[in-house]
Amino acid sequence: MKFERYGLGLIKGMTVTIQHLLRHPTVTQFPEQRLNISRRTRGNELIWSREKCTGCATCAKTCPQGAIEIVTATNLADNKYEVETYRVDTGYCIQCGLCVEACPYDALFMGYSFERAKYRRGDLVQTDDELLESPERPASAYFHPEIDEKLPKQTLLIDKIVEKRK
Amino acid sequence: MAIVDFIVQNQLPMQVVPPDWPGGYWWHWLFFTVVLIGFVLIMVMGVIYVERRGLGRMQSRLGPNRTGPFGLLQAVADAVKVLLKENIVPDKADKLVHWLAPVVAFVPVLMIFAVVPFQNGALLADLNIGILYVVAISSVATVGVFMAGWGSSNKYSLLGAMRNVAAVVSYEMPLVLAVLGVVLVAGSLSMNQIVLAQDIPYILFQPLGFLIFFAAGCAEINRSPFDLMEADQELVAGFHIEYSGMKFAMFYLVEYAEAIAIAAIITTLFLGGWRGPILPPWLWFIVKVIIVFFVMVWTRATFPRVRIDQLMALAWKFLFPLALINLFVTAIQVLVWPDALPWIVIIINFAIMGILILLWSKFFKLGWGRLEV
User: pLDDT below 50 — which residues of chain B?
Assistant: First the structure.
């Protein structure tokens, strides 16, 4: 005789919900509290290094959206091949990370930030110096695990519950 | 006129005015009408807060916490928002019915509170048939709901309203039978007298009656798990799908006012009403109402919605026979052992409840050979 079928199941369910009521809720109040996201996230921006870039345009060829535009020129004075414009329309970017994986000179990184919404479509097009790494635009460790140590460890919601129970 | 003559000739007690009330009859009515409307409106805001926060925490969320301290003003913000919204009436709607429905639904709910005692003698009308009046009045709200469903000329709202009518008609019977058990023990139909008779809360004398009343009450006011008439996933919103603005606010108000009314009746009938130590009686009453409402929220957070055939089967195959047997057993107890020690009766009644629930769960079947509930 299974008592779950005779009303005990109802009581079991009720105890589960009351336990949920008494424990700490598993939520983050977003603008005030923030969780650290995964260190290898593919955030919604692209970090470009002017020093390492040789202008080979592998990234532009591999981009499935054709969002990367690269213009190169020969600098006859220095006898060098250099990048004139590097323009990414992040509105087309699907954060696939193929450009980062394809870059033979480690000049491209995915961004670590994720709050990069813009009010105007034109603002999504980023050119040259807007793409460089800066404290506001840290690079993610995606495909570059050596950056891992620079970034904070990911926090999980489950940690918050455990922390509250102690 | 015939009823009044009958009452006068038979010298039936009609205690309408408490003897020490200054100004007499009309002041009493005016005062309590204002108090009741204020009570219902404020309590609705309170229970909406309790429901949203409590339900949130049970689902591991926080619930509204941005508007005002601890989100206390969320109900006010929602009310303002809904009042400022455009009032849309469907082109093919029956305009008069559509317009009248919220009023017809709201007024009976408000009228229930007329006989609910806040403390000894503190009620609008101490009818000697108080609980009968409640049973009679509370069903009228269904007419409003059906008017809303019909008048909107929308298939979903009509389906929701039909389901509501079916549920109310079915669940009215176990509800009334459960009430009768209490009436037998108390020996009076007056709500005030029932509270005065409860030296021990009747939830102990009538545990089965309490469970039946709670389930049937939840079904009657269409709270989860019996909220079939506004089953969001099937019927979008049920009977009030075509309502917006102030009229929608009225239905929202009715939903929670009904829940408070059922909680108040449960408090009065089973939990000893306003009686309790230390705290003032009216505060005890409100505390008990909130506790009962919280249990409703708790069941809402826990149980999944039942199907329409399960809803009907539960009413007719489970609650109705149990309520009949409960009434029978109570009648025997009241007639044969009127002077039995209370704790013996309590133990017997709890034992009977356990045995009956086990037996009827064993017999309970749905449809054509479906074995498990």
Answer: 1, 3-4, 6-8, 10-17, 370-371, 373
**Mutate which: A5, A12, A21, vs B, most B CBs within 10 A:** A21
Which residue type is seen at A131?
Answer: L
Through-space distance between the first and last CA atoms of chain B, rounded to whole angstroms: 51
Q: Is B362 on the interface with A (CB under 8 A)?
A: yes
What total number of domains does chain B contain?
1
Q: What chain A residue is nearest to B55 in terms of C-alpha separation?
A: A21
In a domain, B14, yes or no: no
B260, part of any domain = yes
Length of chain B: 373
Domain layout of chain A by residue ranges:
43-150
Taking contacts as CB-CB distances below 8 angstroms, the residues of chain B near A27 are 60-62
Q: Do A25 and B57 touch (CB under 8 A)?
A: yes
Q: Read off the pLDDT of residues A7-57 as tens digits, 9 standing for 90 and up.
A: 788 888 899 898 888 887 777 778 877 788 888 888 888 899 988 888 888
Packing angle between helix B25-58 and helix B95-112, nearest 10 degrees?
100
How many angstroms separate the CA of residue B270 from the nearest CA in chain A? 21
Which B positions 302-331 lie with beta carbon below 8 A of chain A?
302-303
Print the domain residue range for B143: 86-363
- Write out the DSSP string of B292-335: HHHHHHHHHHHSPPPPHHHHHHIIIIIIHHHHHHHHHHHHHHHH
Amino acid residing at B306: V
Task: Flag whether the ipTM exceeds 0.85.
Answer: no
Q: Any bridge partners for residue A71, and if so which?
A: A85
Nearest to B228 by CA among B150, B141, B145, B161: B161
Q: Would the CB atoms of A25 and B303 count as touching at under 8 Å?
A: no
Question: Phi/psi class of residue A86: alpha, beta or left (left: φ > 0; alpha: ψ in -120 to 50)?
Answer: beta
Six-digit token string for B43: 């309590």
Residue B286 lies in a domain: yes
Closest CA to B328 of B180, B140, B210, B139: B180
Nearest 5°: CA angle at B164, between B215 and B358?
25
Contact B245, B88 (CB under 8 A): yes
Domain membership of residue B190 (yes or no) is yes
Integer angstrom CA distances of residue B312 from A91, B177, B219, B226, B319: 55, 17, 10, 10, 10
Which CATH code for domain A43-150? 3.30.70.3270
∠ CA(A71), CA(A77), CA(A83), 5° rounding?
A: 15
The verdict on A18 touching B (C-beta cutoff 8 Å) is: yes
Instruction: Classify burial at B236, counting beta carbons within 10 Å of its beta carbon; exposed 0-12, middle 13-18, buried 19 or more.
Output: middle
- Give tens-digit pLDDT for A154-165: 887 777 665 555
- pTM of the entire predicted model: 0.81
CA distance B299 to chain A (A): 7
